[in-house]
């Protein structure tokens, strides 16, 4: 090869070549006259990618190919008829949201760059032949109903990242289970026994018969001595031996409540069982009052009926499993496709659902205006607002700073009532403070405004956002950059909405056919 543009040589044209290669997404080096090993490697990668004979030399066929791509009409600043179809394919695949004109501007170039980056292609923002081929193949697949997108992360790596977050993945699976705290972390224990029935007999022995000593009303406090066995009542033989006005008497356990309350001495884990190696449901701060229901060695079992707790890794793995054979495929439904519902069809489903009742047309308008599936929007709203009955759905009065007023039942005339239908900015533990404040900032002063405005926020931030989170699965787990911009902490957030989506589709007379983008880990 006689070309001066090969390894070991110096040439003025090497500067231009390097600039062109970097523009096309190959290499990152200083723009000097030296054609060294780095330049040779970048040229080899270019040749391999575009089907030119691979020799590492910038020969005539290679330079012609570089010029051909750099002269492509499908790059920023140009007008071309093919830009219309290109934009259509990009939007269907979740990259960008723009008017389908012949203009290929910076927005289109940015969407092409994002697509190239997401599919391990050289990033140039130019719609070269390889980019168009990959884009067309994926578009055709998705038009047929289902595609599989593989991400550059393993499932194990994704799960590992979830447990570096604060909070960890959350669940309500164990919400009715008590918790355990080591006795070293509980102090100031106080006991109380209160009669819970009305007109309860206190007896001379733990039996039913002619042994009534006193009759007391509900709420009467007595002093607990110990538990004893006695006559059975409602399946239980447990009685309380008590002291009442200096007399030792007995009452069946179903008619009284014996409680022990203590206070945590420091920040401590509430665990699943009486073992320091068992799963930690949650960490609670020192000074927290707890109700003790039992003792197990050096552990106290406490009443811990708390909705949200740290999820076990096994449960997180189960809910995060993207396999449509294992979990409902609708978590992979493309949310950029509208369902084709009418307002009246949606109103049938929304009937009786709090402030969502009668808002079918608002969901249709939101879907059409922002390109977000209306069945999903309703499923999301129903899930977040407890069927339209949550405080955020019913409306919260706020002051001029967006902070909730103290007296919601009798707000000042200057207060503004705001709504938040998707839990937007309603951070865990701050739902009724941060949620209405954000709604106030956005002007969501009616259910309709909250429905449509919230759909715009979801579209911009997630469905057409930088991470292409255009399915419920991607919104929850974000396989592009897992741990970042995940919509919820609940491991079941995506799957919990799938049955509602199915129900709504069944109520639509002429629905569009759902399409799916199934996540696959490497």
Q: What summary fits the major beta sheet?
A: 8 strands, antiparallel
Mean pLDDT across every amino acid position = 95
The number of distinct structural domains comes to 4
Helix content: 25-40%
Q: What is the overall silhouette?
A: elongated
Write the layout of secondary structure elements.
Blueprint: E1 9-10, H1 13-23, E2 34-35, H2 37-50, H3 60-70, E3 78-79, H4 82-92, E4 103-104, H5 106-118, H6 129-143, E5 146-151, H7 155-162, E6 170-171, E7 179-182, E8 186-195, E9 200-203, E10 212-216, E11 221-233, E12 236-244, E13 247-252, E14 256-264, E15 268-271, E16 280-284, E17 289-296, E18 299-302, E19 309-310, H8 313-320, H9 343-350, H10 360-370, H11 374-384, H12 391-394, E20 396-398, E21 416-418, H13 431-442, H14 447-463, H15 472-477, H16 493-496, H17 498-506, E22 516-521
Parallel strand pairs: 5-22
Antiparallel strand pairs: 1-2, 3-4, 6-19, 7-18, 8-11, 8-14, 9-10, 11-12, 12-13, 14-17, 15-16, 17-18, 20-21
Quick structural overview:
With 522 residues, the protein is an alpha+beta fold. The protein is built from 17 helices and 22 strands.
């Amino acid at each position: 090869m006689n070309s001066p543009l090969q390894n070991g040589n110096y040439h003025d044209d090497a500067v231009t070549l390097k600039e062109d290669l970097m523009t096309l997404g190959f290499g990152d080096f200083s723009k000097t006259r030296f054609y060294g090993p780095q330049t040779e490697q970048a040229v080899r990668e270019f040749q391999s990618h575009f089907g030119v004979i691979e020799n590492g030399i910038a020969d005539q066929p290679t330079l012609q190919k570089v010029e051909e791509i750099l002269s492509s009409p499908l790059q920023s600043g140009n007008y071309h008829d093919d830009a219309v179809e290109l934009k259509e394919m990009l939007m269907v695949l979740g990259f960008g949201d723009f008017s389908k004109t012949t203009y290929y501007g910076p927005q289109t170039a940015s969407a092409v760059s994002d697509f190239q980056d997401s599919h391990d292609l050289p990033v140039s923002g130019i719609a070269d032949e390889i980019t168009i081929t990959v884009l067309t193949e994926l578009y055709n697949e998705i038009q047929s109903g289902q595609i599989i997108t593989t991400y550059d992360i393993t499932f194990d790596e994704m799960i590992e990242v979830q447990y570096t977050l604060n909070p960890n993945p959350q669940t309500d699976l164990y919400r009715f289970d008590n918790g355990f705290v080591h006795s070293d972390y509980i102090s100031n224990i106080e006991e109380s026994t209160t009669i819970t029935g009305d007109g309860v007999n206190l007896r001379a022995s733990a039996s039913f018969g002619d042994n009534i000593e006193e009759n007391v009303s509900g709420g009467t406090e007595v002093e607990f001595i110990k538990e004893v066995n006695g006559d059975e009542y409602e399946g239980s033989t447990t009685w309380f031996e008590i002291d009442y006005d200096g007399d030792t008497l007995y009452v069946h356990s179903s008619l009284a409540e014996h409680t022990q309350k203590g206070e945590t001495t420091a920040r401590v884990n509430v665990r699943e069982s009486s073992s320091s190696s068992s799963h930690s449901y949650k960490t609670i701060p020192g000074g927290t009052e707890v109700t003790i229901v039992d003792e197990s060695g050096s552990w106290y079992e406490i009443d811990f009926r708390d909705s949200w707790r740290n999820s076990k890794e096994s449960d997180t793995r189960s809910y995060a499993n993207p396999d449509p054979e294992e979990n409902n495929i609708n978590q992979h439904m493309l949310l950029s496709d509208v369902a084709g519902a009418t307002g009246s069809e949606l109103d049938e489903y929304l009937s009786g659902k709090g402030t969502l009742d009668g808002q079918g047309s608002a969901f249709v308008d939101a879907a059409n205006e922002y390109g977000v599936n209306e069945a999903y929007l309703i499923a999301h709203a129903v899930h977040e607002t407890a069927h339209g009955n949550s405080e955020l759905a019913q409306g919260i009065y706020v002051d001029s700073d967006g902070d909730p007023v103290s007296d919601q039942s009798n707000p000042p005339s200057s207060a503004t009532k705001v709504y938040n239908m998707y839990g937007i900015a309603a951070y865990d533990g701050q739902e009724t403070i941060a949620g209405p404040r954000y709604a106030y900032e956005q002007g969501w002063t009616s259910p309709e405004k909250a429905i449509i405005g919230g759909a715009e926020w979801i579209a911009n931030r997630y469905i057409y956002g930088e991470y292409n989170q255009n399915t419920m699965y991607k919104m929850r787990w974000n396989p592009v950059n897992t741990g970042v911009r995940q919509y919820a902490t609940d491991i079941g957030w995506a799957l919990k909405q799938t049955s509602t989506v199915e129900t709504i589709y069944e109520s639509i007379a002429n629905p569009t056919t759902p399409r799916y983008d199934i996540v696959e880990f490497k």
